[in-house]
Amino acid sequence: MLTTLHPSSSTTQTTTTMGVPQYPVSTFRASAKPSANGIPRTFGQVVEALVRVLVALITTPANIVTWLLFCPPIPLKLFLLSRIVKYSRSLTPYLLARESKKEASHKPARPVVPFGDIEKTVSTTNVTVPAAKRQPSAPPQIQPTEAYGFILTPNGSKGKGADKAQPGEKIIIYFHGGAYVVGHPLWTPFALQLARDARVRVYAAQYRKAVDATSAWPAQLQDGLAAWEHVTGELGFEPHNVIIAGESAGGHLSLAVSTQLGQWDAPGPGGLALCSPWVDVTRSFTPPAASWIDYLEPFWSRYHIPSLVRYLTAEGERSLLVSPALAEAGAFDHLAKGKTSVFVSVGTAETIAPEIYALITRLKGDTVKTAVFEDENGLHIAPAFALFQASPKQYTKFAAGVKGLVRDIDAANKQRAKEAAPSA
Fold it and tell me: Which residues form the Alpha/beta hydrolase fold-3 domain (predicted)?
């Protein structure tokens, strides 16, 4: 259900579905709040690389001593990498990546994590899709536009490339992480690994980075819905045969797309796979003591969050689509009603672990079928590790969770067929 947007008004006017407050009119401001704008991605990568080299040279001896004295529960190499990323990010928090059209629509020339030989078993098809026909509420400054994606086809999958869906075929829509200001669907081999191991096509969706007043929230939701419409419309996949997956900000977008569909009373996905989902932009939760080993830099949030929420009021920042960790009872009834299964992975040493646990509690409270992989002493997005090579154990656990969603979809489809069959 959509409300009418009056950008010049701050009056609260909220509609309700199933007793749950929906996107209120007062979600958006008339004009953008001041925030840092992005710089060209290539230039930002060069600056960040230089800073990381300097940080590594200066801090590594002290970090080795710290590891020896305090014995953190992670290997020395991972600890050093985590420190380098955290310290360098604290020195360059303003590096928000402005992508060119070519950078957004093509595979990165130098992925953050090398692909190895996985492309021998997974092919890539570049696609450009139109804006979604049905749009979420948005300020007039945020206009829908065409979006880019990459269809990943593993050997042995039912369908190929951009072909129409085969009967009963399943697909994963994947959204990458990066705090909505950096990243790319193919900056790591994570999406290709999911395609290979789940043996289904993956639509790795690109979305606009929130780097200026024309690309703040909900531009990312607009692009996410464009991916959904392309997969369920142009490609012909049945909604209940779609899994939406993502890590960090991509997990947030996965949940936002499914929530928007639920608010429209539209069919939603059969499964959600959320890897360390970022689910609270208000910073209402205190990081756990164990998070001192995590690489997330809280100071960075003073730049990337304001860049994302330029048009959001305080009420808008706390709304279900934006901060689902703060959701009230009944917020996810649409998932339970639609038989959507959810798989969540969370590291106990993550800076944002408390908000993820709050989301899990709410999902289970709303009787959503929810499976959890709790990674003891795990860092942020450990199964995907956009900054480090994935741990085999952590990735394997996440891949197993995705395969579990496929089994849940099969079981739900059988139940739907049974319910639809005429009684004897």
Answer: 172-380
